[in-house]
C-alpha cells in the first residue's frame, strides 16, 4: 500500500532539501522564502514500505495569506494523508512552533523534524527534544538536511508514523488555553454546534470553533456550503462580537497572541541559549549590504559582475564548442556516413545541414548559459536575492510595485517560465498580474545567444555595450509599462504592503550550486534534443522540398525551397523594420516556439553550400587531440578573462576570429534588406527578439498563472510593442544617421 | 490590539518608522488592515514582543524572535511601539 505523507513548514526551513534527500529528486532549492509555489510529489521506499511524499509550499500559519500558502493548507485539510511531516527551523524555533501548534490542534498524525541543527549549534542553541516532543505530543527527529545528516533516521520515523495511522490509532488534538473569556466562548460554540451534525461530521468541534473565531475565510466559505452553515456562522459572529468587547481586542489576534504565549513558555522550558542578544553575522553583513546608501551601488556592482561573467568569461568555451562541432564532430559523422555508403545523399544533408547545423548551433551557447545560471544560483543560495528585493523596494514603489515583485523579475533573467510561477509569492492579485506582465521583458537566458551572435557580426567592437543596452531596454520597457498600467483603472492604486522574511546568509554549497545549474542546463539540453531537433528536421525538410520547379529533393537552393516560400509570406511585415527577408522571418517564426531555435534556424537557412565531401579530414587521433588541447586553451582564456570583470585586461594579443560562412551570409542578407544599413537592421532585429513572446512554454505559464485573458493581453501586447520598437529603432536610426 | 500594562509616562509611543537603527522597542499595537495585521501577528509580531531595528532604508529590517523581517515603510508607520 502506498502511504501518503506531506511535508509542511514555514518558508525556507529546508522542506525541499529534505524532500530531495528522501526521494532522490532534484527540486529547486534556494535561500529565499517562497521558492516552492506548487506542490511536488515523489516516491521512496524504506523498510519495504512505499511512501508517496508531497512537498508543499512554505506557510507561516494555517490561515492562508497568499495563494501558495492556500495550496499547503488546503492540501492538509482536504487530502487523505497518513501523516504530515512538519519541518521546523531549529535556529528559529519560536516562530516555527506557531504552525506546529496549529497542526497539532487539528489532531492529524504528525512527525516533527528539527532541521538546521547546524545553524542552531552555531548560535549555541540547545533544544531538549524529549520534553518538546512530550508537550507537542508527537515524535521529533533532528536533521541537517543540507549535509544529509539524520535522513536515515527520518525515513524510519516517517514509515513508523505512517504505518501507525493505518493501524487507526486515534490522535488527541492539542488543546491550548486561550484565556477564560475566549475559552467560555469556545465552550459555548461547541455546545451550539451539536445542532449541526452535518458539519461536525467533517470538522472536530473545538478546532472549528477556534478557527472560525480566527476569521479563517476559506473555512467560512466551506462551512457556508454545508447544511446549517449560514446559521452557524451567524452564531459565531455574535459570539465574536461579544468576545471582542470582553477581551478588548480583535479575537483572532487575541487567539494568535495566546498561542504565542503558550509557545513562549514551551520554548523557555525546552530551549537553552545564551541570553546576550548579539548581532548575528548576517546582521553585520546586512548593515552594509542593505545600507541606504551602499545598497543600490552594491546591487549594481553584483549585476554587472553577473553580466561580465556570462558574457566575457564564457566566450572562450563558446569558441571551443563551436570548433569541436564544426571540426571533429562533423568529420566523424561524414566519415561514418561514408562508411555505410550514404555520403553525398540526402541523409548526409539531413545530418550536416539539418541536425548539426540546427542542434549544434544551439549547443554552442551552453557555456554562456552555464555561467549565467551559476551566477543566479549563487545569488539565490547565498540569500542575497531576498536582500535585492529589500534594497529595491523603494525604487519599485515608485513604479507601483514593491520589493517582492523584484524576485520574479530577477529570476526572469534566467528563464521566464519559473519567473512567472514565482509571482505567486505576491499576496495581491493585481500586483501578481502586473508583475507577471512585466516578467517577459526581462531578457531570459535563451535570448542571449541571439544577441551574442548578432553583436559578433555587426558590432564586433562594442558587442558588450550592445548586449548590455538590450538588457537595459528590456528593464526600461518594463518600468514604463508598469507606470502606464498603474494609471489604468484596473491596476489603479497602491501596491500591497511589503512584508518579507529575510533568511540568514548561507555559504552556497558547491553541490547545490552545481545541481541548480545542471537542472536548468539539462532542461535546456532536453529542449535541444526535442524542440530544437524536431524543428531543425522540419526546417530541413521544408528547405529540401523544391518549389517552382528548380532543383530536386535535398538538392535545392534555399531560396527555391518550400521554406523560403512559406516564410516569404510574412516577410513583408518586417520590411519597414529593415529585415524583410524570408530568412529573418523564418528565424522569428521559429523563435515563437522557443528562443533557442532562432540561432539554429539561422544556422540552417544561411547554411552556405559547404564542400565538406571534397575536404581531406585530419586523422581521428588529431581530431581527438584537438578537442582536448582547445579545451585547455579555452580554460586558460577563461582564467584570463576573470580579471576582466574588474577591468584588468590580461589577454596578450587580440586575435580576430575568422569570419565564418554564417557571419558573412547574415551580414550580406541584412545589408540587402535594409538598403545598406545592416547594423541598424540588426539592432532592430535584436530589439524585436528582446520584446516579442519569449516562448510557447512561457505562454502556457502565463495562461496558468494569469488566466487566458491576461495571456492574450501579454502575447498580443508583446508582438505589437516589438514591432513598434523595432520600427522606431530602424526608421528613427535612419533619420538620425541621416541616410 | 493593545499590550496590557499601561505605558509609563516616560515610555513614549511612536510609530516604528521613527525608531532609529540599533534601537530595541516593544510593539504596542498595529493599526493596519485586519488581514495584514493578523498575518503580521502570525509571523510573530504579537503585542508586547521586543523588536530591534537592524536597518532602515526605505523599508525597515527588524529582528523579532530570531527571525529577520523586512517591513515596508507604509506598514511601519502603522505599527505603534514604545521604548
Ligand atoms: N545550514 C543549513 N542550511 C540548510 C539546511 N537544510 C536546508 N538548508 C538551506 O536552506 C535553504 C532553504 O532550503 P529549501 O529546501 O529550499 O527550503 P523550503 O522549506 O523548501 O523553502 P520554500 O519552498 O521557500 O518554503 C537552502 O539554502 C538550503 O540549502 C540545514 O540543515 N542546514
Ligand atoms: Mg521548497
Give descriptors for this structure.
heterodimer; A: 739 residues; alpha/beta; Rossmann fold; Helix Hairpins; six-stranded mixed sheet; two-stranded antiparallel sheet; 32 helices; 63% helix; B: 83 residues; alpha+beta; SH3 type barrels; six-stranded antiparallel sheet; 2 helices; 6 strands; 16% helix; 37% strand; binds guanosine-5'-triphosphate; binds magnesium ion
Reconstruct the topology from this structure.
The complex is a heterodimer of chains A (739) and B (83).
Chain A: E1 2-9, H1 15-23, E2 40-46, E3 49-55, H2 67-78, E4 83-89, H3 93-106, E5 110-115, H4 117-122, E6 126-127, H5 129-136, E7 140-142, H6 151-166, H7 180-193, H8 197-202, H9 205-213, H10 217-224, H11 229-247, H12 251-270, E8 271-272, H13 281-289, H14 295-313, H15 315-339, H16 346-363, H17 366-382, H18 384-398, H19 403-411, H20 416-422, H21 429-438, H22 448-458, H23 463-487, E9 499-502, H24 510-544, H25 562-570, H26 582-593, H27 596-605, H28 620-641, H29 661-673, H30 678-691, H31 696-706, H32 708-737
Parallel strand pairs in A: 1-3, 1-4, 4-5, 5-7
Antiparallel strand pairs in A: 2-3, 6-8
Helix pairs in contact in A: 3-12, 5-12, 7-9, 7-11, 10-11, 14-17, 15-16, 15-28, 16-24, 16-27, 17-24, 18-19, 19-20, 19-21, 20-31, 22-23, 22-29, 22-30, 23-30, 24-27, 25-26, 26-27, 29-30, 30-32, 31-32
Chain B: E1 13-15, E2 24-30, H1 34-42, E3 50-56, E4 60-64, E5 67-71, H2 73-76, E6 79-82
Antiparallel strand pairs in B: 1-6, 2-3, 2-6, 3-4, 4-5
Magnesium ion binds next to α1 of chain A.
Amino acid at each position: 500500500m502506498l502511504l501518503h505523507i506531506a511535508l509542511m513548514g514555514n518558508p525556507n526551513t529546508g522542506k525541499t532539501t529534505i524532500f530531495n534527500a528522501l526521494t532522490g529528486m532534484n527540486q529547486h532549492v534556494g535561500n529565499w522564502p517562497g521558492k516552492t509555489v506548487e506542490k511536488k510529489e515523489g516516491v521512496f521506499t524504506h523498510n519495504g514500505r512505499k511512501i508517496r511524499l508531497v512537498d508543499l509550499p512554505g506557510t507561516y500559519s494555517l490561515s492562508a495569506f497568499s495563494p501558495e500558502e492556500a495550496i499547503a493548507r488546503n492540501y492538509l485539510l482536504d487530502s487523505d494523508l497518513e501523516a504530515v511531516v512538519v519541518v521546523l527551523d531549529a535556529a528559529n524555533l519560536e516562530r516555527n512552533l506557531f504552525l506546529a501548534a496549529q497542526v497539532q490542534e487539528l489532531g492529524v498524525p504528525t512527525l516533527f523534524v528539527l532541521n538546521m541543527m547546524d545553524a542552531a549549534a552555531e548560535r549555541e542553541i540547545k533544544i531538549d527534544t524529549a520534553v518538546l516532543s512530550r508537550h507537542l505530543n508527537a515524535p521529533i527527529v533532528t536533521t541537517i538536511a543540507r549535509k544529509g545528516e539524520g535522513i536515515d533516521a527520518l525515513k524510519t520515523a516517517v514509515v513508523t508514523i505512517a504505518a501507525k495511522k493505518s493501524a487507526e490509532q486515534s490522535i488527541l488534538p492539542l488543546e491550548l488555553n486561550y484565556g477564560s473569556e475566549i475559552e467560555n466562548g469556545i465552550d459555548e460554540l461547541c455546545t451550539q454546534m451539536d445542532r449541526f451534525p452535518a458539519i461536525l461530521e467533517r470538522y472536530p468541534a473545538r478546532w472549528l470553533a477556534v478557527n472560525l473565531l480566527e476569521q479563517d475565510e476559506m473555512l467560512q466559505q466551506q462551512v457556508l456550503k454545508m447544511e446549517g452553515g449560514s446559521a452557524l456562522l451567524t452564531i459565531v459572529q455574535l459570539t465574536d462580537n461579544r468576545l471582542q468587547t470582553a477581551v478588548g481586542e480583535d479575537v483572532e489576534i487575541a487567539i494568535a497572541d495566546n498561542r504565542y504565549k503558550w509557545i513562549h513558555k514551551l520554548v523557555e522550558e525546552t530551549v537553552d541559549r545564551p541570553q546576550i542578544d548579539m548581532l548575528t553575522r548576517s546582521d553585520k553583513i546586512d548593515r552594509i549590504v542593505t545600507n541606504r546608501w551602499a545598497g543600490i551601488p552594491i546591487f549594481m556592482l553584483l549585476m554587472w559582475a553577473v553580466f561580465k561573467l556570462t558574457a566575457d568569461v564564457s566566450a572562450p568555451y563558446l569558441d571551443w564548442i563551436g570548433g569541436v562541432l564544426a571540426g571533429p564532430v562533423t568529420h566523424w559523422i561524414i566519415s561514418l556516413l561514408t562508411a555505410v555508403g550514404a555520403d553525398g545523399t540526402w541523409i548526409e544533408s539531413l545530418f550536416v545541414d539539418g541536425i548539426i547545423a540546427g542542434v549544434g548551433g544551439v549547443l554552442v551557447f551552453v557555456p554562456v548559459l552555464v555561467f549565467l545560471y551559476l551566477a543566479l544560483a549563487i545569488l539565490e543560495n547565498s540569500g542575497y536575492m531576498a536582500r535585492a528585493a529589500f534594497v529595491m523596494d523603494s525604487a519599485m514603489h515608485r513604479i507601483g510595485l514593491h520589493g517582492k515583485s523584484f524576485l520574479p523579475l530577477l529570476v526572469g533573467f534566467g528563464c521566464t517560465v519559473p519567473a512567472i510561477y514565482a509571482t505567486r509569492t505576491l499576496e495581491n492579485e493585481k500586483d501578481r498580474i502586473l508583475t507577471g506582465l512585466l516578467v517577459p521583458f526581462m531578457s531570459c537566458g535563451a535570448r542571449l545567444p541571439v544577441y551574442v551572435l548578432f553583436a559578433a557580426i555587426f558590432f564586433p567592437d562594442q558587442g558588450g555595450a550592445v548586449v548590455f543596452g538590450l538588457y537595459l531596454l528590456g528593464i526600461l520597457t518594463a518600468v514604463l509599462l508598469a507606470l502606464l498600467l498603474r494609471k489604468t483603472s484596473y491596476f489603479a492604486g497602491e501596491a500591497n504592503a511589503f512584508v518579507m522574511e529575510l533568511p540568514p546568509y548561507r555559504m552556497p554549497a558547491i553541490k547545490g550550486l552545481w545541481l541548480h545549474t545542471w537542472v536548468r542546463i539539462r532542461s535546456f539540453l532536453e529542449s535541444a534534443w526535442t524542440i530544437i531537433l524536431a524543428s531543425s528536421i522540419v526546417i530541413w525538410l521544408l528547405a529540401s522540398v523544391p518549389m517552382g520547379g528548380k532543383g530536386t529533393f535535398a538538392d535545392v537552393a534555399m531560396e527555391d525551397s518550400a521554406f523560403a516560400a512559406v516564410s516569404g509570406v510574412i516577410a513583408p511585415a518586417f520590411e519597414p523594420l529593415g529585415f524583410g527577408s524570408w530568412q529573418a522571418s523564418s528565424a522569428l517564426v521559429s523563435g515563437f516556439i522557443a528562443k533557442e531555435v532562432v540561432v539554429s534556424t539561422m544556422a540552417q537557412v544561411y547554411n552556405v553550400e559547404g564542400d565538406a565531401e571534397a575536404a581531406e579530414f585530419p586523422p581521428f587521433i588529431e581530431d581527438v587531440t584537438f578537442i582536448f588541447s582547445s579545451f585547455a586553451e579555452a580554460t586558460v582564456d577563461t582564467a584570463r578573462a576573470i580579471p576582466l570583470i574588474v577591468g584588468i585586461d590580461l589577454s596578450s594579443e587580440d586575435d580576430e576570429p575568422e569570419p565564418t560562412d554564417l557571419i558573412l551570409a547574415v551580414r550580406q542578407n541584412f545589408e540587402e534588406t535594409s538598403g545598406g544599413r545592416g547594423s541598424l537592421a540588426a539592432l532592430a532585429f535584436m530589439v524585436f527578439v528582446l520584446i516579442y513572446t519569449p516562448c510557447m512554454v512561457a505562454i502556457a505559464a502565463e495562461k496558468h498563472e494569469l488566466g487566458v485573458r491576461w495571456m492574450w493581453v501579454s502575447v498580443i501586447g508583446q508582438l505589437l510593442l516589438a514591432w513598434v520598437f523595432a520600427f522606431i529603432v530602424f526608421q528613427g536610426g535612419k533619420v538620425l544617421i541621416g541616410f | 490590539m493593545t499590550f496590557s500594562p499601561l505605558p509609563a509616562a516616560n515610555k513614549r509611543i511612536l510609530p516604528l518608522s521613527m525608531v532609529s537603527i540599533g534601537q530595541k522597542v516593544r510593539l504596542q499595537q498595529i493599526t493596519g488592515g485586519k488581514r495584514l495585521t493578523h498575518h503580521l501577528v502570525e509571523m510573530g509580531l504579537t503585542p508586547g514582543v521586543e523588536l530591534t531595528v537592524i536597518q532602515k532604508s526605505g523599508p525597515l529590517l527588524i529582528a523579532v524572535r530570531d527571525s529577520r523581517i523586512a517591513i515596508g515603510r507604509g506598514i511601519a508607520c502603522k505599527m505603534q511601539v514604545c521604548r
